[in-house]
Specification:
about 250 residues; six-stranded mixed sheet; globular
Length: about 250
């Protein structure tokens, strides 16, 4: 079985006027297999957000390859890059910021469906189905982001991400802005979606909370100063860390 995502020697160097260049991500490599959930953890400044921004093509890589479903997407532009988002979707940290406040949730969820030519009537039906699949009543399609709670808005964001049936879902601190009870509900929803879709849905889960990664992920990568310093099964990494930084990271939350 081939990886759904393969990252090879991915590097990001920022040029700073009057200062030495800064390497935020330093030649990292990893694979994500179909149906797998891979966690990336690290403190602020570890490089995990920059790495994900390159994978999602929100930022250009300085060098390296990003192979999604067999295609290197690292340097795609325009129409070819837009096609990539039919295979890869993101769920962000602050759900209300990811929706246009002037448009209903239904409009936001249905946008990608209309863009691929689905009729307005069929789009509405699919939006309602997606909302219900994500644990929200169909009538939430007519609500605006400010009219729902943070947890409800994040469920709508997941519904929006699933609309095009992506093979890869990237969750960038998708639960960190929510309280503990709502975090649990969102993780339960994601687990249910994984069970339903099997190898058709892989998740890249960016998080700073080790306990959430331990609950949710099949494997974990630990990033520090732009490098992957440790990787493995979460219980093994947390129970028997091999890297001094990983040990400090674990000690800081115990």
């Amino acid at each position: 079985m081939e990886p759904i995502l393969k990252v090879e020697n991915l590097t990001k160097v920022f040029s700073r006027s009057g200062q030495a260049d800064f390497t935020a991500v330093n030649g990292i490599c990893f694979d994500l297999m179909p149906g797998e959930c891979l966690g990336i953890i690290g403190e602020s400044g570890s490089g995990k957000t920059t790495a994900v921004n390159m994978v999602t093509r929100l930022a250009d890589a300085t060098s390296g390859n990003i192979i999604l479903d067999g295609e290197d997407i690292a340097h795609l532009k325009g129409r070819e890059l837009r096609k990539v988002y039919q295979k890869m979707q993101m769920v962000f940290q602050t759900p209300t910021d990811s929706f246009d406040p002037r448009r209903t949730l239904g409009d936001g969820i249905g946008e990608s469906l209309r863009n691929i030519g689905m009729s307005r009537k069929d789009t509405r039906g699919e939006v309602e189905r997606l909302l219900e699949k994500c644990g929200l009543p169909a009538e939430f399609a007519d609500r605006y982001p400010h009219q729902v709670s943070g947890g409800q808005c994040q469920r709508a964001a997941i519904a929006r991400a699933l609309a095009v049936k992506p093979k890869l879902l990237i969750c960038d601190e998708a639960t960190s802005a929510l309280d503990v009870t709502i975090q649990k509900e969102i993780l339960e929803l994601l687990n249910e979606l994984r069970s339903q879709q099997g190898d058709n849905l892989s998740i890249l889960f960016i998080c700073h909370d080790i306990s959430l990664v331990q609950q949710f992920c099949d494997r974990v990568l630990v990033m520090y100063h732009g490098d992957i310093v440790e990787e493995g099964i979460p219980d093994d990494v947390i129970g028997n860390p091999q890297n001094e930084y990983t040990q400090r990271l674990i000690d800081s939350v115990l």
